[in-house]
Amino acid sequence: MVPKETGSILEWIRIQEEDFSVEEETNRIKERSKRIGGIVTFLGTARDFSKGKDINRIDFEYYPGMAEKKLNEIRERALQDYDVIEVSILHRVGRIETGENIVLILVAAEHRKDAFRACEWCIDELKRITPIWKREETTQGEVWVVEHP
Amino acid sequence: MVTIRFFAVLKKLLDRDSMHIQLTGPATLKTLLDRIESEIPSIRSVIKEGRTLIAVNQEIAQDETVVSDGDEVAFLPPFAGGQH
All domains of chain A, ordered by start, with CATH? Predict the structure, then answer.
């Protein structure tokens, strides 16, 4: 078994304003272990239309410290509850234009089944417990988004 | 002194992003809310209507959670993904 404790929080959990490269992040997690047989990726991007309104741009606010702590809890629980080798979670904050990247979750495993299940669980949990807020600037004014399926 | 922080829509509703409360000793969150209410009379209705969570030192807290000098209390409106 690959030891799951290896790696620091900052290595696999990041909240940042700047954009990220999906390819670079994928290569990084791929180097984690030769045992990896599949990587499931969830990439959340900024859409230009929501609830009948055109969106010009989005601003993400977060609670520094608590947000990283929650993302790390999600990573640790995924490593514990699913048969996966590594989990990486990266979320952007600040101003994000439509079409840009917002969030990236990578789950690497020996086999695909648990990687898919863990990845879906991670994004659901991220939206449920992580103190990150989204404000959409629409053609009809600002909207703080509180619910998305 | 306890630092109180407000996030997202609460900053706009309350027209502030933080405040400070001086405690003479440990108090429950409920007592702290009474103190905040004396400065922000609408705080309880804003919390209730906005389904706001409260964190003490970055952990979700309840009415009976004890708050002490130096703690940070944060008012957290529903997150971007919503509360399922």
Answer: 9-145 (3.90.1170.40)
